[in-house]
Amino acid sequence: MERRVIKIGTRKSKLAMWQANYVADMLDAAGFQPQLVPIETKGDKIQHVALSKIGSKGVFTEELESMLRRGQIDVAVHSAKDLQSKLPDGFKVLSFCERESPDDVIVSDKEIDLNDPKLILGTSSTRRIAMLKHYYPHITTVDVRGNLQTRLEKMKSGIMDGLVLAYAGVRRMNYDDLVKYWFDTERFIPPVGQGSVAIEIHENLPVETASRIKMATNHPLTEKVLLAERAFLRRMDGGCSIPVFGHAEMESDGQIILKGGIASLDGKELIQRTMYGSDPEELGTSLADEILQSGGKKVLEDIKSAMS
Ligand SMILES: NCc1[nH]cc(CCC(=O)O)c1CC(=O)O
């Protein structure tokens, strides 16, 4: 039988290419003929502006989605964390690949003492900044954007002592030996989706092909917890520039445990709750409602008005 070609749309950064190759390998093993189609997105081109200021949702996904819609690619590979919680009409997440550790770490070429009153850490994430301000108010943060390689160069030039990054990306780029501190998942809850690679498709992809791709790439356990996290994010109406965090795991009895919350931009307020459930959508939505009713709504509105 002829191997069906699957065109995989991806961003061009090294990490994005790692993710696309990871999916390509799984498709190859399942009898497809994968082909990478690397493209540059708006989010990659605008590097000097903080992401929270570019503002528009989907700066990393729009171009890939228009190629999916036109059938120029069959699937788009993203970090699950970069995918909007509400996809445009006609699109869906087909697969969530097996999750790597979702935690944040500090990467540096020297030892890091979190109690050092002069410590300067690089990050552009409003969530990481708010969390740092909350738990370590003496730490100074500086904005740093660009791909992992660019960020590491900026760090080595001495502007900052270390970078706060997702361990998953660090691992995939083989920078394990630069990890100097591992944040505790219980306190420093990661963002929704961190650590999992997601495959997005448009509904015009033939159902038969879609289901074969899903069989070859989807990790059902990861899918279940990610659906809970994403339902939570959708209800929170967060967007990537709001310090919303959420992380779900499967308990041994088959229940999902979902922890999540929101912080104010200055880190002074941090609302966090934990909930158990078996239906991912219901669980995610209930946790968000609980947080919104417990002061989260006010925090969210204050952030939105500060940003507009
Ligand atoms: N913010 C960008 C981004 N998008 C995905 C990852 C890698 C981790 C992942 O795939 O979840 C990173 C780097 C980081 O946050 O340190």
TrEMBL record:
<keyword id="KW-0627">Porphyrin biosynthesis</keyword>
<dbReference type="InterPro" id="IPR022418">
    <property type="entry name" value="Porphobilinogen_deaminase_C"/>
</dbReference>
<dbReference type="GO" id="GO:0006783">
    <property type="term" value="P:heme biosynthetic process"/>
</dbReference>
<dbReference type="GO" id="GO:0005737">
    <property type="term" value="C:cytoplasm"/>
</dbReference>
<dbReference type="InterPro" id="IPR000860">
    <property type="entry name" value="HemC"/>
</dbReference>
<feature type="domain" description="Porphobilinogen deaminase C-terminal">
    <location>
        <begin position="227"/>
        <end position="292"/>
    </location>
</feature>
<comment type="pathway">
    <text>Porphyrin-containing compound metabolism; protoporphyrin-IX biosynthesis; coproporphyrinogen-III from 5-aminolevulinate: step 2/4.</text>
</comment>
<dbReference type="InterPro" id="IPR022417">
    <property type="entry name" value="Porphobilin_deaminase_N"/>
</dbReference>
<dbReference type="InterPro" id="IPR036803">
    <property type="entry name" value="Porphobilinogen_deaminase_C_sf"/>
</dbReference>
<comment type="function">
    <text>Tetrapolymerization of the monopyrrole PBG into the hydroxymethylbilane pre-uroporphyrinogen in several discrete steps.</text>
</comment>
<protein>
    <recommendedName>
        <fullName>Hydroxymethylbilane synthase</fullName>
        <ecNumber>2.5.1.61</ecNumber>
    </recommendedName>
</protein>
<dbReference type="Pfam" id="PF01379">
    <property type="entry name" value="Porphobil_deam"/>
</dbReference>
<comment type="subunit">
    <text>Monomer.</text>
</comment>
<feature type="domain" description="Porphobilinogen deaminase N-terminal">
    <location>
        <begin position="6"/>
        <end position="204"/>
    </location>
</feature>
<keyword id="KW-0808">Transferase</keyword>
<comment type="similarity">
    <text>Belongs to the HMBS family.</text>
</comment>
<dbReference type="GO" id="GO:0004418">
    <property type="term" value="F:hydroxymethylbilane synthase activity"/>
</dbReference>
<dbReference type="Pfam" id="PF03900">
    <property type="entry name" value="Porphobil_deamC"/>
</dbReference>
